[in-house]
Design goal:
The protein is α/β, with parallel strands linked by helices. It has helices spanning 3-8, 23-38, 53-68, 87-100, 119-137, 149-161, 166-169, 197-206, 223-236, 241-269, 281-286, 289-304, 312-324, and strands spanning 12-13, 46-48, 75-80, 105-109, 142-144, 175-177, 187-189, 211-212, 270-273, 276-279, 331-333, 336-340, 353-357. The strands form 3 sheets. The protein has a 6-stranded mixed β-sheet with strand order 4-3-2-5-7-6, with helices on both faces. Strands 9-10-13-12-11 form a 5-stranded antiparallel β-sheet. A two-stranded antiparallel ribbon has the order 1-8. The longest helix has 29 residues, at 241-269.
Length: 364
């Protein structure tokens, strides 16, 4: 049976409660949300709900938190990707559950031709873009998503397998920029990163809430599904999802420290004007190598308008040529042209570099 056919057979699922109501989960979530609000998480917010257990739990938990804090209730966004028969009914089921909880629900439809390859990543892009447009239109600053502790651990291991560095291994951030270009100022908020998938499902079952179990979560053609099947073996070796997620959290704090040092360097070594920047290579040279590389990547991304940093190997080659003074007439990378600054723009002395967006590049 194809993956699409399996998904079409998805049924509402509500197992018999094995435990009593998890009152501790409510308190844990409220504390997590209070910390995020203190850190600047925008509210009112919208919550992305697919109909699965995690996102439904987040919907109910956010509703409880908002009511307890005297704040406006969250708005519910669900996306009908139109990739299989019955997807519209699933979206309406989500909207129905949201309305029964006293919430406003909005079904967003992915229209137009669908890709024949890379469907998973294209659907993710379309999903965030649809929700981002809704947020902008309704002047709502944040999308709350239901990534759990298990998702954090899985993301860490998947990125480790791809050879990611510190930024990748720090995995998902509780409070992060919107993951699709063109939505600057919007935030993604993940209040469940320290709560397990098991705890969320037990709490939902105890509250007698139904959810949809998606058979694609058991389809071995997806790397994340294959990884989930070996996680119990890793747990036997002491590598539980909690320990793995904790490791990602430790690396996240290290990343924050490096980002702070990078910002401090850029405040002294770079000046931005429009779609261009001037850079002081001598300050890059005297900074720790990791900070200098991060600063250069940041300037290139800001000038180019790209959401992601340049490939590390090419970035490192450019960085080394700048430090060695062998850049010559200039180079290109990440949609940018890097070269010696004209005399009238040499604000950091004769070694000043200019970084400008390449002609014909409009940015992401």
């Amino acid at each position: 049976m194809s993956a699409a056919a399996k998904v079409a057979e998805a049924k509402p699922h509500a197992p018999e409660p094995k435990t009593g109501p998890k009152t501790g989960l409510l308190a844990e979530f409220r504390e997590a949300m209070d910390r995020l609000i203190e850190r600047g998480a925008p509210w009112p917010g919208a919550v992305a709900v697919s109909g699965g257990a995690d996102s439904l739990a987040l919907m109910y938990l956010l509703t409880d938190w908002a009511k307890g804090r005297g704040k406006p209730a969250p708005q519910v966004l669900t996306v009908d990707h139109g990739l299989r028969s019955g997807s519209d009914k699933d979206a309406e089921q989500v909207a129905k559950q949201a309305r029964q909880a006293g919430l406003k629900a909005h079904v967003l439809v992915w229209k137009g031709a669908k890709p024949k390859s890379g469907i998973e990543s294209e659907a993710r892009e379309a999903r965030y873009r649809l929700m981002g447009e809704w947020l902008k239109t309704h002047q709502t600053g944040a999308l709350y998503v239901a990534h759990s502790e298990d998702d954090q651990a899985e993301t860490f291991l998947l990125r480790l397998a791809r050879g990611s560095g510190l930024d990748g291994l720090s995995a998902m951030q509780p409070l992060a920029p919107f993951p699709v270009a063109g939505f600057e100022g919007l935030r993604v908020v993940r209040p469940l990163l320290e709560i397990s998938r098991k705890a969320l499902r037990e709490w939902l079952a105890a509250q007698k809430h139904d959810w949809i179990e998606d058979p694609m979560n058991d389809d071995p053609k997806f790397a994340r599904v294959r990884l989930r099947k070996v996680l119990p073996q890793l747990a036997e070796l002491g590598l539980s999802t909690t320990r793995i997620a904790d490791a990602a959290s430790h690396l996240s704090r290290a990343r924050e420290a490096l980002d702070s040092m990078t910002d401090a360097l850029l405040s002294r070594a770079a000046r931005f004007e429009g779609l261009a920047a001037v850079l002081d290579p001598l300050r890059l040279k005297t900074a720790p190598r990791e900070i200098g590389l991060r600063a250069l990547a940041s300037v290139l991304s800001r000038v180019s308008g790209e959401a992601y940093r340049p490939r590390f190997e090419r970035l490192e080659r450019l960085f080394d040529s700048i430090l060695a003074g062998t850049l010559g007439g200039g180079a290109t990378l990440h949609g940018c042209r890097i070269g010696p600054a004209p005399r009238e723009e040499a604000v950091f002395g004769s070694a000043t570099l200019t970084i400008a967006r390449e002609k014909g590049r409009s940015g992401a």
